[in-house]
Amino acid sequence: MIKVQGMYKRFGKTTALDALDMEVPRGSIYGLIGPNGAGKTTAMSILATLMLPDGGSAAVDGHDVLSEPMAVRGVIGYMPDFFGVYDGLKTCEYLDFFADAYYVPQSRRKTLIGELLELVNLSDKYDSYVDLLSRGMKQRLALARCLVHDPKVLILDEPASGLDPRARAELKEIIKHLKQLDKTVLISSHILPELGEICDQVGIMEKGRLISSGPVEEITAAGRGASLLRIQVLDKVSGLADFIKPRDNVVSVEQDEGALRVIFRGDPQSRGKLLRDIIEGGWVVTEFAEVRRNLEEAFMAVTGEGVLK
Ligand code: ADP
Ligand code: MG
User: Fold this and answer.
1) pTM for this entry
2) Are residues 160 and 241 in the same domain?
3) Is the domain of 33 the same as that of 128?
4) How confident is the model at residue 23 (pLDDT cuts 50, 70, 90)?
5) HEC profile for the chain?
């Protein structure tokens, strides 16, 4: 549904997107995870046709973002990472304004607004002023706003950011509901682990590139797809890191005190081969184990943002 190929974007000396490749399957909830500054907002703004890339291409539902921006806009609902507040507007007026902007006929708007408010659990806020809503309510209203033209694709930039656990749980339920309505959802977060359970696919982004992507189980579960290995040797551990890095199936190697944490993408046979090669390379291996991890740990491990316990 969304296809990004070799996308570049620079801001002065900063490279925000560095040959980004990403594919979001139709009907999936795709979580784009990455630390602040990874390039998530930049990628989403380009997909939302609000910013031009310096190179590469992207298409949404078969429409090219550069040559057919209006077609793309018809297909997507974009929720930016800030809430555009309009003082003195009521919730119903706010949605009416956006419905008008998307050419929803006036005769249909009242019903539509009622349905949207129900979808995001804000029916009782129909007449409330937008600026008086809680943050969680504003986020849900912003979500309703991107649905006024019934888009097939939703691009949600950090919708859970700043929400308390309860508000986040409510948001999750709504996003699950969107999937039942056959929407494709691209959702970003630097704390995606909390949204992990609702995503079918995740892409882990760092420094403008996707460094790991696939079904959530593949990213997180040991044994299938990428797994996390903990390797300990008696000595020469940094030499071992250099030895392992360029090998087949090795995604990344990190040194944590005396041990190495290796993200490995390969079958048991190739894992066995790695162990044999290390031993034949002269290292005394004291530990070679697969570590189970949840999405949060996977994120930490892959982005190198934290220490895996
Ligand atoms: P994320 O959303 O993952 O936190 P961004 O896409 O916002 O990341 O930013 C990626 C990089 O590009 C960062 O280094 C950021 O400082 C830089 N950047 C983003 N937007 C601009 C801009 N308008 N001008 C200059 N630098 C920018
Ligand atoms: Mg951002």
Assistant:
1) 0.76
2) no
3) yes
4) very high
5) CEEEEEEEEEECCEEEEEEEEEEECCCCEEEEECCCCCCHHHHHHHHCCCCCCCEEEEEECCEECCCCHHHHHHHEEEECCCCCCCCCCEHHHHHHHHHHHCCCCHHHHHHHHHHHHHHCCCHHHCCCEHHHCCHHHHHHHHHHHCCCCCCCEEEECCCCCCCCHHHHHHHHHHHHHHHHCCCEEEEEECCHHHCHHHCCEEEEEECCEEEEEEEHHHHHCCCCCEEEEEEEECCCHHHHHHHHCCCCCEEEEEEECCEEEEEEECCHHHHHHHHHHHHHCCCCEEEEEEECCCHHHHHHHHHCCCCCC
